[in-house]
């Protein structure tokens, strides 16, 4: 049975997924402790960065920071080409922070950005994420608090949406596996793929979008949130055409419909449709973020903690969005540390979106993400994950994975 098409932009204020209201209600966010208090969330003792270590393969780079007091923290650079990112980390991040005060994360981020101002691009941010996330973990361990509490939030349950990454899957098979996840794990929100990645209006195969949208939506039925991702696949005209189909089939979230670097194209789609048009996962430049938000190119912003350069810079984007009345539903498309960092973020910010992106892909799609952590940090119960209450990020990296990784260190002399 088809759901009725949306008639106005939905409200996102309820943290557990309730949805009501009208286009102007994005600004009605649940209030939490003042943003200004985040930087001083705990009194950290004086400590300097004495050692920085990286553990790397082609896909993942974990970073360990050790201070002169012996305190440690673990973080991660962004995934993919992580071995290259590790080189950038040691060449363009480490020299500016080794021996510096570890208590002021923002000051360290600013220092790297200023010293490496001729290299403002993605790789620098991907490398910077390793430092930033390690320092947040360090601060949590020193304070004996989870990062979510340093940000003014609380550990506990967090609603997740089951996020499919596959395009080489038939509509029937996609519908079947999402329904199975709904029944087995209680998910109440799902995302699947339309278009072809940067496809210039050419689908993954002819007619796939028109087939998969109703097939999956109708199989999931009513009472769930439905999202699709086009990964920069469409022109504005085609995106609006597909968007009308999405609205007819009860889908409320249309992600990255047009080439993400063409904000004006995305805004045309946003203005034309009543469902939520979303984007921002690829963006790291704060000036671009400011322009995107000021022009209302999207209805929901989706920064990726690791692409952004860490939690600190992501918080800057979240503040921009809060002032504009826009919710934040970050991109976290694999089960490395990015998803855990995003969980802590969503547990604290006042303009958090309705849910966490949680990849459903396993070893067949992401073999490199297997066995990164001990235990089961992304266990789903009734469609929710749990933000840990343990200090820092609350996860333990698998020692066997670390033992097999390429190692490099820098020590304060």
Helix content: 25-40%
Q: Secondary-structure element sequence?
A: EEEHHHHHEHEHEHEHEHEHHHEEHE
Return the structural class: alpha/beta
Q: Count the helices. How many? A: 14
Number of strands: 12
Rounded mean pLDDT is 92
- Note the main sheet: 8 strands, mixed
Short description:
By secondary structure, the chain is an alpha/beta fold. The strands form two sheets. Strands 4, 5, 6, 7, 8, 9, 10 and 11 form an eight-stranded mixed beta sheet that branches. Strands 3-2-1-12 form a four-stranded antiparallel beta sheet. The protein has 14 helices and twelve strands.
Explain the layout of strands and helices.
Blueprint: E1 49-56, E2 61-67, E3 72-76, H1 82-92, H2 94-97, H3 105-115, H4 122-143, H5 147-150, E4 156-163, H6 171-185, E5 189-193, H7 208-220, E6 225-229, H8 236-248, E7 253-255, H9 263-272, E8 276-279, H10 286-294, E9 300-301, H11 305-308, H12 311-324, H13 337-346, E10 356-359, E11 384-387, H14 399-403, E12 406-411
